[in-house]
Amino acid sequence: MKHLLLALTLLLPSAVALAIDTGKAFDDPVLQARYEKIISEVRCLKCQNQTIKDSNAFLAGDLRREIRRMLQEGKSDAEIFDFLVVRYGEFALYKPRMSGKTLVLWIAPLLFIGIGGLIVFRVIRGRMAMPLDDEDEIAVG
Amino acid sequence: MLRYLAPIIVFAIMIPVFLIGLNRDPTELPSPYIGKTGPQFELPRLLDAQQTVGSADYAGNIALINVWATWCVGCRQEHGFLLKLAAKNDLSIYGINWRDRREDAVSWLDQLGNPYVASGFDADGRVGIDWGVYGAPETFLIDADGTVLYKHISPLNQAVWDEEFVPRIQAARGESR
Predict the structure, then answer these.
(1) In this predicted model, what pLDDT tens digit does every residue of A104-122 receive, in sequence order?
(2) Number of structural domains chain A divides into
(3) Which residue of B has its CA nearest to A89?
(4) Which residues of A touch B31 (CB under 8 A)?
(5) Which residues are bridge partners to B97 per DSSP?
(6) Chain B residues with CB inside 8 Å of A62's CB?
(7) B32: distance to nearest CA of chain A, Å?
(8) Which chain A residues touch B26 with a CB distance below 8 Å?
(9) For chain B, where are the E strands, in sequence order?
(10) Which residue among A50, A129, A133, B63 has its CA within the 20 to 30 Å range from the CA of B26?
(11) Residue-wise pLDDT tens digits, B62-98
(12) Are residues A62 and A32 in the same domain?
């Protein structure tokens, strides 16, 4: 029973993978690696929380086709990302590039850590300044 | 005192932020082409594959580009309104028949009527990608010089037309009512 369950669980992701044309697109392993990296960083605009690598929406398939075409034509990664941003905006990239519009996305996490750290620091310092009354009691008692 | 007020103040700031966030539709992406020249294209005509239709056809005029397909429910929904709009003869409507089957699209126009001056047949979705299309129906308002004035995602209707399109068309024509 345990083995059957395990086998079934293992089958689940493969069923999803089978639906998408993740087969080798290029014979050249360098191109193939670049291709897979790019498609895992591009958002499927139709199914917004998936990359075009994970999606079998036809738009994702079309975008994969265009990316394969551009790789074959010898375009650089930057040129391919540009192609997408011009048409669909920065939102198309899972890793938005540093620019005026996306600066806040990059800075916000640091800012929040900074604010949180400051609060924690102040709370701890406040506590340290408090008299340790219960320990005193033990010492006296 | 501040100790107790601070969380309440922070909370009061967060409420409107979240309210705005909740009421925005994350599936509606703004087009990066707004205010810029739209992409050039040339496609075989849906009803006559020997002829083409493209950006050259509407150059010099304010035009609508409507991206449609027979598999798209919203396109059927807005079709009546497009026909009404075409009947007014106020501006030309061009279609991009996106990722469709030619025979389906032809019979759709036969059955429901044809509001388009011409529709381009974009079988592999290449022109759709150039225009940043990610779901039909999408409608672009193009100025006479080719600038994209507005993009509407989801079906058109009278209310959307009056609110979003009419003022922009009037401004583009230098009219005022």
Answers:
(1) 888 999 999 999 999 999 9
(2) 2
(3) B32
(4) 89
(5) B68, B121
(6) 99, 124-126, 128-129
(7) 6
(8) 48
(9) 42-44, 52-54, 63-68, 92-98, 118-122, 138-142, 148-153
(10) B63
(11) 999 999 999 999 999 999 999 999 999 899 999 999 9
(12) yes
What is the H or E stretch that residue B42 is in?
Answer: strand B42-44
Residues A70 and A8 in one domain: yes
- Selection from B163, B10, B38, B50 nearest residue B94 by Cα: B38
DSSP letter assigned to residue B67 = E
Q: In this complex, do A89 and B30 lie within 8 Å of one another by their Cβ atoms?
A: yes
pLDDT band at A21, cuts 50/70/90? low
Q: Do A89 and B124 touch (CB under 8 A)?
A: no
Inter-chain contacts counted by CB atoms under 8 A, chains A and B: 39
The pair of structure tokens assigned to A68 is: 């394969």
* CB spacing of B31 vs A85 below 8 angstroms: no
pLDDT above 70: percentage of residues in chain B: 98
Query: How many residues make up chain A in this entry?
Result: 141
Q: State the residue range of the domain holding A32.
A: 1-97
Cα distance from B71 to chain A (closest Cα, Å)? 12
Which CATH number applies to B34-173: 1.20.120.450, 3.40.50.720, 1.10.3720.10, 3.40.30.10? Answer: 3.40.30.10
Question: Which tokens is A78 given?
Answer: 């930057």
Is residue A6 located within the same domain as residue A67? yes
Q: Do B32 and A45 touch (CB under 8 A)?
A: no
* ipTM score for this prediction: 0.85
Give tens-digit pLDDT for A26-36: 989 999 999 99
What sign for the dihedral angle of Cα A51, A56, A57, A59? positive
Domain boundary among A76, A97, A118: A97
Q: Which one of B26, B99, B134 has the shortest CB-CB distance to A88?
A: B134
Same domain for A104 and A92: no
* E-assigned strand segments in A33-125: none
